[in-house]
Every structure is written in structure tokens, then in C-alpha cells.
């Protein structure tokens, strides 16, 4: 009984705000701006979602988010897979130090890295470019991907790779013909995690890109939290839209979730 | 057979890491060192050139910004770790039983954690809204307050409001980690303790807790590290205000560099921040190595 009460109380805290987001996004503007607010709307409308589709700036942010998060995920998985293979299947001096340096770097403050990243991108004329965003996102996706992929590669038996070696396969074909195909689910899961992290980034895109290259999170802040009165129902509708890909991603990733959390962020 | 022994062509192994190592050096290590170096220069974000000033920037930030910012950061980190830990642990214990639909519940509870940080801020910005907010609406209806309160606009309540929002976003992760840990506690231990006459509370203290020590350590350390450098929720909810009441290190360094253009002082504040943070990170890596 106490368990059910605990779940109920925490459930109210967890899902109350979600409910309120949804209700506000579906309530006509005139009804939203009343006090005290109505807990359920008298009439339901989709006008706020239609407003989003009519806003060309939002569509641009959406396109930017898709492009930047996808390319970040691709680039990071590509580069990390070789490193993760090395960490998983080879033994050499400095390996552990390198592994833990990369792990620890997830904890370097982003605001601090940003100062020099900004100066460097500015010096190379790269501010406000997709490349600047992708490279800056890689600062947090690279450690995540290296550690997660190492976790996946650790589960692949050495014997499988040994057998290929005996059959005369070179290192290149061991990696590309055996290791990577066998690990495909792991690569996809890792890529999806990287995509989500890139999709959710706020501080780098806020600072390194202007309105035409910005992604959704800073784009929404600049659109709705400006000097003028925020259009709350539109913002709540936009919040649901920007959350949707991430929620779908996590439904797909359910199976890998705990493994991802533990091996990606915590241990190998 | 021990994994990884038989393929030990070390040089080739190291070469495989080169693309990542080069990239890592360019976008993580160089920027980190570069930013820390600005702490001993007088340097602007928008004008070229810089002049060496020794420890002048440190003297300045220690005389002004550092202490209030440290206090705000510690309050946010402490409360923002403790509250989600208690809620996450309680939920993990509750869900660690053969309850109907547990898997679905566990998945649903993750929602606040998976959505983008700015969405968390938008939702709570709206709930805490002074004029039309849900919280004021409920409290006024219940007669607990006479007039709407500007939760994010008052120095006395702004930090706690931020902690509530951050708690909402963090407790699901803690729940998942602790639930995974709880499922590794052998049932026989509980049964044996029960036979010896131990009640629920004593079994929790003497069987469950000792078994979870490792995972609790990791979860708490990571939460402390993440909160110590958290930016998104605070910046969107208050921007560090009102009157600096919620300015943590992340916000202070960001504002000093990108609003005040003063890279020297941002670097000095950042170096002190990094120093405190590295204590936590070293402890974490030691724990992770085990």
C-alpha cells in the first residue's frame, strides 16, 4: 500500500507538469490567460500547432537541428568506433590513462570550453556555421560514444576476430567486415544517443550560431522568451514538438537504456 | 580466456585511437587549457590582443564575484542532488516489486529526464508564471496564499524554484540507476534476514543499503558533478537573477565572457570553478576505475 501511495504522489509531481504542458498547448489563447487557470479546457484547439507550421523561422531551426544532430552522430560514431575497438581489444601503455582522460572530459565545464572554442571559430571565420556546431557538440558526444561502443565491443568474443585473422583477414577487414557488422545494433543505439544529446544541446548553439544556423533549443528561447510577452500556448506546443523525436528515440532505446547509462557514462 | 590479450598488437591499437585523439586535443584539451590561460591576461571577447596581468583577475574575482557565486552553486548543487536522490530512491524502492505494468511505469517516469533541458525550463517557467501560473492558481484556490507570488522574480524563492525544476528533470535517471541496482540484490539475502526476524526497515538498512553502496556512490557523485556545472535550467529560468541570487559558476562564467566580454575574469572564475570541480572528478574516476 505504501508503495502505491509513493508511486501516486511522485506520479503527480512527474506527470502534472506534462499534463499542464499538453493542456496549455490545446487551449484557446483567450482561455489560457485567465486567473486562476482552469485545470481542464472548455474547448480544445489545434491552432497553436498550426501557428508553429506557419512560422518560417521555426522550420529553419527544425531543419538545422536535424542536420546538425544527425551529422554529429555520424561523425562521432565513425571516429569513436576505431578508438573503442582499440580500447576494447588492444593492450598498450597509456591506454588506461587515455580512457580515463576521455571519460573525465565529459565533466569539463562547457561554459569554460566555449570561451576558446568561440575565439578559435571566430579566428577561422567559422562562427555561425554547421561545422562549428558539429565540432562543439562532439566535445560531449565523443566521450559518450567511445565508452558506450567499448562496452558493446567488450561483449564480442576475441575468438571471432581471431578466427578471421587465422583465415588471413587483415586488420582493416576484421574491423569493417566483422566487428562493425556484428556490432550494428550497438552502433545504431550509440548513434541515437549521440543524436539525442546533440538535439538537446543549448549552450553551444546559443553562442556559436546566429538565427539562420541556430537549432531548436536556443531558437525557441529567442523566439518566445524575447522582450515581448511570450505566447505561452504556442511555446508549449513547440515544446511538445521538439520533445517528440527524443521520446521516440528513447522508446526505441529502452532495451539499451540501462546498458547505455552504465557503460556510456559510468563504467566500461 | 581474458578478453583482449590475444590481439595485443599495441602499436596498431594506439594508431586506431589517433583520429579521436587528434580531434579530442583540438576541441577539448586545447580549449580547456586556452580558457584557463586567459585568467592571467586582460583580454576582451570582441577586441584582438591581450596583456599579461599576473594574478590581477584572481584578486578581482576573489574580492567580488567568487564568494556569492560559490554559495549559490553549493546551494543549487546540494539541494539539486539531495531532492532528486530522495525522490528517485523512494520511487525505485516502490517500483522494485511485482507491480502490474511496472515496465511501462518505469518508461513513462523517464519522460521529464529525456526531454530537452530547455523544454523543462519552459514547462516550469509557465507553471511558476506570476500572473497566470498553475502553482499560484492552485495555492490561491486552496487559500494558502492571498495573492500570486513571483516565484522566479523574488531572491528568496528563485533558487528553490529552480531546484524544483531541476529535481523534476533529474530524479528519473536516479530511479533507473537505483532500480537496476536493486534488482541485483539477491532475494535469498532478504529471505534469510526475514527468517532471522528482521523487519522491512532493518532489512533495508542491513541488506539493501550495503548492497547498493557502490551504485549510490556513483549516482551521487555524478549528480554532484553535473549540478556543479549545470547551465541550461538556471539560464532559461532566471538568467542568474534576480539580483544575482541564482548566479552559479556556469552562469557567471558565461555572462562574464559573453555579455561582459571580459575573458580574463571569466577565465579566473572558470579556473577556480574547475579546481573545485576537479576534486569531485578525481574522486569519480577513482570510483569508476574500481
UniProtKB/TrEMBL annotation, chain A:
Residues 62-253 form the ABC transmembrane type-1 domain. It comes from Rhizocola hellebori. GO terms for cellular component: plasma membrane. One of its GO terms (biological process) is transmembrane transport. The chain crosses the membrane at residues 7-27, 61-85, 97-124, 130-153, 174-196, 235-253. It is a multi-pass membrane protein. InterPro entries: BP-dep_ABC_trans_perm, MetI-like, MetI-like_sf. This is ABC transporter permease. It holds the Pfam family BPD_transp_1. It is found in: Cell membrane.
Automatic annotation (TrEMBL), chain B:
Pfam families: BPD_transp_1 (PF00528). The keyword Acetylation does not apply. Residues 70-284 form the ABC transmembrane type-1 domain. One of its GO terms (cellular component) is plasma membrane. InterPro entries: MetI-like (IPR000515), MetI-like_sf (IPR035906), UgpAE/MalFG_permease (IPR050809). One of its GO terms (biological process) is transmembrane transport. The chain crosses the membrane at residues 12-33, 74-95, 107-127, 160-184, 233-254, 266-285. It is found in: Cell membrane. It is a multi-pass membrane protein. Keywords: Cell membrane, Membrane, Transmembrane, Transmembrane helix, Transport. The keyword Ion transport does not apply. PROSITE patterns: ABC_TM1. It comes from the Bacteria. Signal peptide: none annotated. Belongs to the binding-protein-dependent transport system permease family. This is Sugar ABC transporter permease. It comes from Rhizocola hellebori.
Amino acid at each position: 500500500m505504501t508503495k502505491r501511495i509513493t508511486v501516486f504522489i511522485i506520479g503527480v509531481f512527474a506527470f502534472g507538469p506534462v499534463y499542464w504542458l499538453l493542456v496549455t498547448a490545446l487551449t484557446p489563447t483567450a482561455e489560457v490567460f485567465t486567473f486562476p487557470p482552469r485545470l481542464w479546457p472548455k474547448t480544445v484547439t489545434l491552432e497553436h500547432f498550426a501557428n508553429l507550421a506557419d512560422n518560417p523561422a521555426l522550420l529553419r531551426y527544425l531543419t538545422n537541428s536535424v542536420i546538425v544532430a544527425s551529422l554529429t552522430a555520424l561523425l562521432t560514431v565513425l571516429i569513436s568506433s576505431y578508438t573503442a575497438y582499440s580500447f576494447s581489444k588492444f593492450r598498450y601503455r597509456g591506454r588506461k590513462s587515455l580512457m580515463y582522460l576521455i571519460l573525465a572530459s565529459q565533466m569539463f565545464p562547457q561554459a569554460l570550453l566555449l570561451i576558446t572554442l568561440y575565439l578559435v571559430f571566430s579566428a577561422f571565420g567559422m562562427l555561425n556555421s554547421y561545422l562549428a556546431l558539429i565540432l562543439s557538440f562532439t566535445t560531449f558526444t565523443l566521450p559518450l560514444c567511445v565508452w558506450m561502443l567499448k562496452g558493446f565491443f567488450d561483449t564480442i568474443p576475441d575468438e571471432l576476430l581471431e578466427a578471421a585473422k587465422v583465415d588471413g583477414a587483415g586488420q582493416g577487414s576484421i574491423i569493417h567486415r566483422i566487428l562493425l557488422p556484428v556490432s550494428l545494433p550497438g552502433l545504431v543505439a550509440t548513434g541515437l544517443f549521440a543524436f539525442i544529446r546533440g538535439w538537446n544541446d543549448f549552450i553551444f548553439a546559443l553562442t556559436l550560431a546566429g538565427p539562420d544556423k541556430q537549432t531548436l533549443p536556443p531558437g525557441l528561447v529567442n523566439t518566445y522568451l524575447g522582450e515581448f510577452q511570450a505566447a505561452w500556448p504556442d511555446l508549449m506546443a513547440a515544446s511538445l514538438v521538439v520533445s517528440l523525436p527524443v521520446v521516440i528515440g528513447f522508446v526505441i532505446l529502452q532495451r539499451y537504456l540501462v546498458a547505455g547509462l552504465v557503460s556510456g557514462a559510468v563504467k566500461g | 580466456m581474458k578478453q583482449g590479450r590475444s590481439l595485443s598488437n599495441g602499436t596498431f591499437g594506439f594508431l586506431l585511437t589517433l583520429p579521436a585523439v587528434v580531434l579530442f586535443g583540438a576541441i577539448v584539451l586545447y580549449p580547456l587549457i586556452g580558457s584557463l590561460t586567459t585568467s592571467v591576461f586582460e583580454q576582451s571577447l570582441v577586441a584582438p590582443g591581450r596583456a599579461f596581468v599576473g594574478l590581477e583577475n584572481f584578486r578581482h574575482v576573489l574580492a567580488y564575484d567568487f564568494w556569492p557565486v560559490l554559495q549559490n552553486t553549493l546551494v543549487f548543487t546540494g539541494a539539486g542532488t539531495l531532492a532528486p536522490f530522495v525522490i528517485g530512491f523512494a520511487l525505485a524502492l516502490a517500483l522494485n516489486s511485482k507491480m502490474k505494468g511496472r515496465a511501462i511505469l518505469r518508461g513513462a517516469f523517464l519522460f521529464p529526464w529525456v526531454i530537452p533541458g530547455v523544454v523543462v525550463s519552459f514547462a516550469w517557467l509557465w507553471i511558476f508564471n506570476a500572473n497566470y501560473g498553475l502553482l499560484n492558481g492552485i495555492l490561491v484556490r486552496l487559500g494558502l496564499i492571498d495573492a500570486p507570488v513571483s516565484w522566479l522574480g523574488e531572491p528568496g524563492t528563485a533558487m528553490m524554484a529552480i531546484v524544483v525544476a531541476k529535481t523534476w528533470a533529474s530524479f528519473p535517471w536516479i530511479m533507473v540507476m537505483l532500480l537496476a541496482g536493486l534488482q541485483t540484490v539477491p532475494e535469498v539475502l532478504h529471505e534469510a534476514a526475514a527468517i532471522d526476524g528482521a523487519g522491512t526497515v532493518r532489512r533495508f538498512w542491513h541488506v539493501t543499503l550495503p548492497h547498493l553502496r557502490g551504485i549510490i556512490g556513483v549516482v551521487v557523485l555524478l549528480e554532484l558533478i553535473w549540478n556543479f556545472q549545470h547551465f541550461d535550467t538556471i539560464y532559461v529560468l532566471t538568467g542568474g537573477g534576480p539580483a544575482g541570487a541564482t548566479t552559479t559558476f556556469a552562469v557567471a562564467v558565461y555572462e562574464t565572457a559573453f555579455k561582459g566580454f571580459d575573458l580574463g575574469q571569466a577565465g579566473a572564475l572558470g579556473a577556480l570553478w574547475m579546481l573545485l570541480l576537479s576534486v569531485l572528478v578525481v574522486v569519480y574516476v577513482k570510483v569508476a576505475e574500481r
